[in-house]
Amino acid sequence: HVQLVESGGGLVQPGGSLRLSCAASGFTFKSYSMTWVRQAPGKDREAVARIDKDDMTAYADSVKGRFTISRDNGKNTLYLQMNSLEPEDTAVYYCATVAGTYWGQGTQVTVS
């Protein structure tokens, strides 16, 4: 069955870095455009980065220049490198297919 399993979240001080990973299984990962979506308490869900099948990337203005999305199709894994973290980045981070077909369970990132 399809699984997206995020890892790498945690507590970090402002200015610090974290690398999120999302292990995919049960579907042809390389054929899907993927995205990282975050949701903070009381706020709308926000797509922060996406990477297409051809490795084209796009970022929300709020994270541009600080976050980098990448993928390793050989390992069926999606990544999000987050640098210069700010308290406003605190949220649960989800990986998902851009079409919304598949979602992970989320990983908590707290910047404080």
What labels would you give this structure?
112 residues; single chain; mainly beta; 6-stranded mixed β-sheet; 4-stranded antiparallel β-sheet; 49% strand
How would you sum up this structure, described in words?
The structure is a single chain. With 112 residues, the protein is an all-beta fold. It has no helices and 10 strands. It has strands spanning 3-7, 10-12, 18-25, 34-39, 46-51, 57-59, 67-72, 77-82, 91-97, 107-111. The relative contact order is 0.32.
Could you give the topology of this structure?
Blueprint: E1 3-7, E2 10-12, E3 18-25, E4 34-39, E5 46-51, E6 57-59, E7 67-72, E8 77-82, E9 91-97, E10 107-111
End-to-end Cα distance, whole Å, is 37 Å
H/E topology pattern: EEEEEEEEEE
Query: What's the count of strands?
Result: 10
Structural class: mainly beta
